[in-house]
Design a protein that fits this description.
This protein is an all-alpha fold and 231 residues long. The chain has 2 domains: 80 residues; 112 residues. The protein has 6 helices and no strands. The longest helix is centred in the last third of the chain and has 78 residues.
Amino acid sequence: RKTRFAFTLQKDIFLLKTLLQVNPWDFGENCWEDAVKIFCTRGWVVTERTGTEEEKTDRASLLEEIEKIVEAAEIQKIVVVHRGADDNEFEEVCSETSTDSSGNDLSTNHETASIIPVVNTKEQVIAEKKDADSSREKCLKALVQENTPPGPITFRRKRARVTEEELMEKRQEHDMYMDTKRVELEECKEKRLREEGERRDDIAKMQLQIQKEHLEQQKIFMGILSKLIDK
């Protein structure tokens, strides 16, 4: 008689650790998201009730780590898209901006061009936030429900109250994590804009210095030429 193969918590933990050790991006862009969906939504982990609380905590921690990797990749993807859009609008912005802060003509100087940030419209920001919140709620609820072993009705009711508290705690942790990422992105953005502004000012100063030296050389040349003519 053949024994039926069943996934246990130990096997799930081993698979999750293996998943973190390899690089799923080598097998396609959606492999991380597929892995999260498989481990969060599947209903055939029939031996989970026999696992220990420590094993359940380890499994939940590994899943949370993978989810953070997916979220970080999504944020990076948004930044790359914004930078790509900035590059496409580079020439148009340069043609509209022909002077710098000092009033110098820079329309023909391509080295002074900088990356202008693209700001999403209000509707796009609201829609993206709703989609992100909905996706996060589904993932967190699936993670909490999966870690809830079946039992008597009274135990289920008591456990339901606990899972709501766990869900609120995970939501707060996720909010803090996302706020930290937003602050880091804003700081990087401000630093990049500040460096670009300093670079533009330095180039403008160099141009003014070159123009002054050119005028001085012209004056010297005209003086020498007038002396030769007088002789």
